[in-house]
Structure formats: structure tokens, C-alpha cells
Amino acid sequence: MDLMTLALPQEPAGGIAGWAADLVDTLGGPGAGLAIALENLFPPLPSEVILPLTGFAAGQGVISLASALFWTTLGSVVGAAALYWIGVLFGRERMHALWAKLPLVKTSDLERTEAWFAKHGTKAVFLGRMVPIFRSLISVPAGVERMRLPVFLALTSLGSLIWNSVLVLAGYWLGDQWDAVETYVGLLSKVVLVSVLAAAAVWVVVRVRSRNRPRAGAGAGPRHRRVD
To answer: I need a labelling partner for 193 at 20 to 30 A (CA). Which of 120, 185, 187, 225 fits?
Structure first.
């Protein structure tokens, strides 16, 4: 396959964008897939940079748009499957053993979480593929809870195709302004992260207060019957 290089003034020269551009220049569509597979395994690698850049490369004729969508979605599924098997190998027994050692949490908390995932896991995996931060992490509990692999792969493929298509097409249509996508999706990632941290902080405060709250009747001295 003959590849053009991204020898343009707008080509990123370094950082993650430069690394992703080099992969696409060198390997074409498989390079974009490899970048996204690694992004799933190492969430600090931002898909909001890699995917629009891949779309930009498709717009410049470096790879075809169909190749960009196919390989990035395949990369997403491969990365998610690796995290799924990490969850499987870790297992429920280790999860419960680890949970028992954590402060402030109860076994009932984990049991409720498992019950919720058993009921809503398919929606969580599908929709989670389109939510920054969660799009990688959701694969681990799916493995721990032994979601059926064909179901997991199907949901991951569909959710990843939607997410990847939006960002790749944005880069394709925006051309040399592809990096604008990073600004908006990066803002969404920050909103999600802040929301999660705020919810966790509220949960910790509520749990600590409930533990420190004296039980009914606690602290009261022994009652003595009056003797006339």
C-alpha cells in the first residue's frame, strides 16, 4: 500500500499527536488501530487526539475513510478484550477479598454493585464505550462478572464504532482544524472526571458521618430502678 506522508504545515511535530501521526504514516490503518488499542489499555492516551487525527489523515488521502473506521474500531475491540480478560483473571473472589480490606466500604455495597451490573451490564458496556474515562474502565467489571464474551464483543464493537465514527468523521470534515475536536471532547472528559470525583467525595463524607453518628441509645448510662 502506497502511503503519503502527512508532510503538511498542520502536521503535529511531537507529543501524542506526533506519535499517532507517525504510526499512521508508517503502518496506515493498522497503525491507527494499534494506537487506539493502546489508548484502551492506557487511558491517559487520548482518543480525542488519535481519532480526529486519523480522520484528518483520511481526508488527506493517507488512508481511506473506511480503513480508518475499520481499524480504529478493531483496535478498540482488541484493547477492550484485553481489559475484559484482566477482569476474568482477577475474578470475583479476589475482588471480594480486596474489597474487604478497603476502608469505609461494606460487602453489601459490592453486592449491590454486582446486582446492578447483572441487571444493567449490557447497557453499561454499550453506553460506556461512548463516555470518556469509562470507555476503557467498563471492560474490567464486565470480565470480573463474566459477561458472555460474544455479547461483550458485540456491544463493544457497536459502541466503539459509534464513538470512533463521530471523532474520525469530525477530523475528516474539519481538515486542518481537526485539533478543535480535542478541545471539546477534552472538556467533556474533565466534566466527567470532576463529576465522578465530586460524587466520590460526597459518598465518603456521608459514609464517614454515618459511621461516626452514635447509635440509638449509645452513650446512655445504665438505668437504675427506683426503690422506694
So the answer is: 120
Q: Kindly report, residue by residue over 121-143, the tens digit of the pLDDT.
A: 899 899 888 887 778 888 988 99
Asked whether the beta carbons of 45 and 79 are under 8 A apart, the reply is no
* Max CA separation in the chain (angstroms): 106
DSSP category for residue 64 = -
Q: How far is CA 191 from the centre of its chain?
A: 14
Distance CA 210, CA 196 (A): 21
Question: Cβ distance 68 to 56 under 8 Å?
Answer: no
What are the φ/ψ torsions at residue 44 (nearest 5 degrees)? Answer: -60, -20
- pLDDT score of 200: 64
Residue 138 burial (10 A CB sphere; 0-12, 13-18, 19+): buried
Report the pLDDT value the prediction gives residue 183, as an integer from 0 to 100: 67
Contact, 38 vs 45, CB < 8 A? yes
pLDDT tens readout for residues 26-74: 888 898 899 899 888 886 677 788 888 889 888 888 889 999 999 999 9
d(CA 64, CA 57): 8
Alpha helices in the chain (DSSP H): 15-27, 29-41, 47-59, 65-101, 107-128, 134-137, 139-144, 149-174, 180-212
Evaluate whether 88 touches 145 at the Cβ level (below 8 Å). no
Measured CA to CA, the distance from residue 179 to residue 170 in angstroms comes to: 10
